[in-house]
Design a protein that fits this description.
Layout lengths: L6 E7 L12 H4 L7 E7 L14 H17 L5 E5 L4 H16 L3 E6 L4 H6 L3 H11 L4 E4 L16 E3 L19 E6 L8 H11 L6 E6 L7 H13 L4 E5 L3 H9 L3 E4 L8 H8 L4 E3 L5 H4 L6 E3 L5 H12 L2 H18 L2 H15 L2
Parallel strand pairs: 1-2, 1-3, 3-4, 4-5, 5-6, 7-8, 7-10, 8-9, 10-11, 11-12
């Protein structure tokens, strides 16, 4: 039984606008409505420039000291602390300081693991770092992952104190009406980098363009600052097929909805994703999907109901699956309608909130 009438929870992490998909899903926990649970957030926005997250500076150290001091004075008001941990060593060490304070103050600690392959990250560390991670993680009260398979990555530090909670989507269509076009429009929307499979898509375009077709390819997303050679390569490719490819950059809000609504197919041949939230977003806009079996994608994605799987780096298979969907209007319509209903029923805020509230109550019993 829960001893206290109201459970007070504080969520520690970065709370910028939701530009990074499931990586910021923790901010939505803060918006959960439950009369018996009161939420607050402790913001750690040290990096306005995401590309500089691993760099040290005196300013950052001062900010960290001030944040730790403030946290020490604040934590006594709460019963549960939820922390999302990083897969970058300097950021993980920063997170661990808040975890240590949480346990020193005898508060319940939930670690929200949103990434992929933490066990591989751990194996690459030096012995002293491994021992430190062991010390911290074995004091966590409960672990939460975004998929069933990710739970295996934390078996070194868990027994039965781990669960998974799938992400959810809520989209706004802005009352947009799909523009008529004689072209079959294929959308890629993610960070324009190798790990998200953008070059698999470009290679598939090259294969498709050897034949006569009415395809239009739409690339939405920002480049990674550190990967300037990728940017040059993509821009050169777009220039080569400038009559067929639209490069729109990062899109949010109205522009993002516009990109989804005015597309006929969504491709996401990612090579490194813990959840692939973009797939669910595309499904909610009635789009068929072509994607890979990364992370939790293989758990929630059903073939052929949601679309098709391909292997990572397999441009030939991607091109072939694109042609199958492009040439079958009835198949597209069936998958699109199925996807919209599937997402609404299984990946909504109500389910997400209910599972988190249930877990928090369990942790304080």
């Amino acid at each position: 039984m829960v001893k206290k009438k109201n459970i007070k929870v504080i969520i520690v992490g970065a709370f910028p606008p939701p530009l990074f998909g499931s990586a910021l899903m923790h901010q939505y926990i803060y918006e959960i409505m439950d009369e018996s649970i009161k939420f607050d957030k402790f913001e750690l926005n040290f990096n306005k420039d995401f590309s500089k997250i691993e760099t040290f500076s005196i300013k950052k150290i001062i900010k960290l000291i001030l944040a730790l001091t403030k946290f020490i004075f604040k934590i006594w008001r709460y019963d549960v602390v939820i922390i999302t941990h990083s897969f970058r060593i300097s950021a993980l060490l920063k997170d661990s300081l808040f975890m240590i304070i949480t346990k020193f103050c005898r508060r319940k600690l939930i670690l929200y693991a949103q990434g992929l392959n933490f066990n591989q990250f751990y194996d690459k560390q030096r012995i002293i770092i491994k021992k430190y991670i062991n010390y911290i993680f074995r004091r966590v009260n409960y672990f939460v992952t975004v998929g069933i398979n990710q739970k295996e990555e934390y078996k070194l530090w868990t027994n039965d104190n781990i669960t998974h909670i799938y992400n959810f989507v809520e989209v706004e269509d802005y009352n947009l009406i799909k523009e008529k076009s004689d072209k079959f429009r294929i959308l890629f929307l993610s960070t324009l980098t190798e790990s998200k499979g953008v070059f698999t898509f470009l290679n598939a375009i090259e294969i498709l363009e050897r034949k006569e077709n009415n395809y239009q390819y739409i690339l939405c997303g920002s480049f990674k600052e550190k990967h300037k050679e990728e940017k040059i390569k993509i821009e050169n490719f777009v220039d080569k097929y400038k009559d067929k490819i639209l490069l729109k950059g990062r899109v949010e809000g109205y522009k993002k909805a516009e990109a989804f609504i005015n597309s006929d197919l969504f491709v996401f041949p990612t090579k490194n994703d813990s959840f692939g939230l973009a797939n669910l977003e595309a499904m909610s806009y009635n789009l068929p999907i072509i994607t890979t079996r990364q992370g939790a994608i293989k758990e929630y994605f059903k073939e052929p109901e949601n679309g098709f799987f391909i292997k990572e780096n397999d441009a030939d298979d991607l091109a072939s699956k694109i042609e199958i969907i492009a040439n079958d209007v009835l198949l597209r319509k069936y998958i699109g309608e199925y996807n919209k209903n599937y997402v609404r029923q299984n990946f909504n805020r109500e389910i997400f909130s209910k599972e988190w509230c249930s877990l928090i109550k369990k942790v304080v019993e």
